[in-house]
TrEMBL record:
GO terms for biological process: fatty acid beta-oxidation using acyl-CoA dehydrogenase; fatty-acyl-CoA biosynthetic process. The keyword Transit peptide applies. Gene3D superfamilies: Acyl-CoA dehydrogenase/oxidase, N-terminal domain (1.10.540.10), Butyryl-CoA Dehydrogenase, subunit A, domain 2 (2.40.110.10), Butyryl-CoA Dehydrogenase, subunit A, domain 3 (1.20.140.10). Residues 140-231 form the Acyl-CoA oxidase/dehydrogenase middle domain. Its cofactor is FAD. Residues 26-135 form the Acyl-CoA dehydrogenase/oxidase N-terminal domain. This is Acyl-CoA dehydrogenase family protein. Belongs to the acyl-CoA dehydrogenase family. One of its GO terms (molecular function) is flavin adenine dinucleotide binding. Keywords: FAD, Flavoprotein, Oxidoreductase, Transit peptide. It comes from the Bacteria. Residues 248-390 form the Acyl-CoA dehydrogenase/oxidase C-terminal domain.
Amino acid sequence: MSAAAPATLPAFDPRDPLSLDGLLDDEERLIRDTVRQYVREKFLPHVAGYFENGSLPETTGPELGQLGLLGMHLEGYGCAGASATAYGLTCLELEAGDSGLRSYCSVQGSLAMFAIYRWGSEEQKQRWLPGMAAGTTIGCFGLTEPDAGSNPAGMRTRAKKVGDKWVLNGTKMWITNGSLADVAIVWARTEEGKVNGFLVEKGMPGFTAPVMHGKLSLRASVTSELVLDGVEVPEANRLTEATSLRAPLSCLNEARYGIVWGAAGAARACYEAALDYAKTRVQFDKPIAGYQLTQAKLVEMAVKVGQSTMLAMHLGRLKDAGTLRTEQVSFGKYHNVHAALEVAHSARSVLGANGITLEYPVLRHANNLESVYTYEGTHEMHTLILGQAITGLAAFT
């Protein structure tokens, strides 16, 4: 027997057309609202300047740390121990502000901190994680190289054991927070062919992290090169449990999960900007929201945002249950980033010429999403991951 319908249905919310808010518990809603308030009150009023200047303020780390957002899905060592869904909601709200802000949190927590948490020794965890959770110690993650992006097995960075130390030589590229980092998680291949992770500390002789300039995307984020020229790293700084590519790839999967949610946030920000603009922009004596072509664009955007958020939430519940597969994370990144790009481009057309200015968030998000489309696994790589899962046949080469 079906349950009785409520006396009155809740009003349709154009900003939450699928009523997904009702699927959250009180703690998840509180975390979501806290992050949303921070983004809207502390970050958004200044983000245009951050994007134009190509940087984030030094206070970003401590502010995120005070909110308990850095490594929030990890247990102990000053970390909040929040659910995967709560972490996802955090990524959504941060990227609704800017992809650079979500990347800061994601690189710190899902890459650098997770690498130590999952693959490091107890001594390494005690030394690094509390400060990183507080945002007073910044980390970065060095896997990508000039000639090894989609194929990390082709890395050329080498680690040679000399006495009780390791000597590292090589170059890493496109490293978020590299120039800011107090510690870099650097992945290198040993003489035995194993892939090890090393904690390379700021100031170690031979280690430099020059800022990469000329970006047209992810400008509210510091991107760097890591140069290792005979850097001597003590054995105590080697991630003791990491001996193969499985280690860095597990970190990437954590970060990709956050991107699934973050892309939905960027899409929502673009959709809301277009909706607000269309209801107030008057042409031919009425708001442009009253024209069929504009409504068609808004409907398409609303559907994509709803689908992306619902998909992210489903993956979050799977992750909390311990049943989320890497192929399903690829499914989420494949769909949500592509959908977010489409929403951003459509929203830009609704705003007309105003859509290209920093007064509105749309083209800033569109530019950022061009980076999100290719980092943490390109769209093509996730296509092949899903293709192999569906057919049972690998087609990477």
